[in-house]
Amino acid sequence: MSEEIVEEIVYANLKFEDSDKKEKTQKSDKCGGKVPSAPSHSQHKRVLTLTLLCLLLLAGLGVLGGIFYTTLETEMIKSNQLQSIKEELQENISLQMMHNLITSKKIGNLSAMLQNIATQLCRELYGKEPEHKCKPCPKGSEWHKNSCYSQLSGLETWQKSEMLCSARNASLLKIKNKNVLEFIKSKKQRNYWLGLLPRKDTEMGNEKMFLSEEFERSTYDLSKMYCGHTDGIYVSYANCNQKKRIMCEETASKVQVESVLSHLPEGDM
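Predicted structure:
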């Protein structure tokens, strides 16, 4: 084959390929877009990397979710255990408080019983020995029921007598009930000032007038007032500035159990 023929064939092929490319380009322009080129190797690598990252992220979220669920479940178990312990402690404390209250009441009852026994024993000892150590009254006074009665020496006005008794943390003789009334009547004492409210007249009283009224310090002009005093089984009134005998009354202290037990015979201990 001659060189001219070969050149013509090559030229015809190149021209055909060129016309074919133009035709494809024209068709692509007519369709309104360009034919996409094939993806490169770097693009495939990026997609693969992003896919792996997403998978790793999902796996991490799954692990974190599992840890969170396990931790939450563990904390709930601990919380329930703590709640149970708290309820058990509260119940134990309530039972202990109830036990202490019952024990305290028992101790209080026993203490009161022991106090009553000691008081009764002391009264028996007092009957035999008026100045027995267990007596819950000042020396020289008389013990009756829950009160101590002390007779002071000398004569004084009603106001001075009231002040002397007050200095001893006591008060002038007061008749507060029938029991005290009978006790005073049995003594047949006369001319002892009473802790009655001063009055403006000298009317003779009866037994009901023995019951003392509360005396409040005030601006009485006692030189014109009359004060009550014992007169056998009655109460009489005299000018408050007259001088009469003094009897002070005070509340007896509690009998000391030790003072009774220490003076009992050894055979009674």
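Summary: Confidence is low (pLDDT under 50) at residues 204-210, 212-218.
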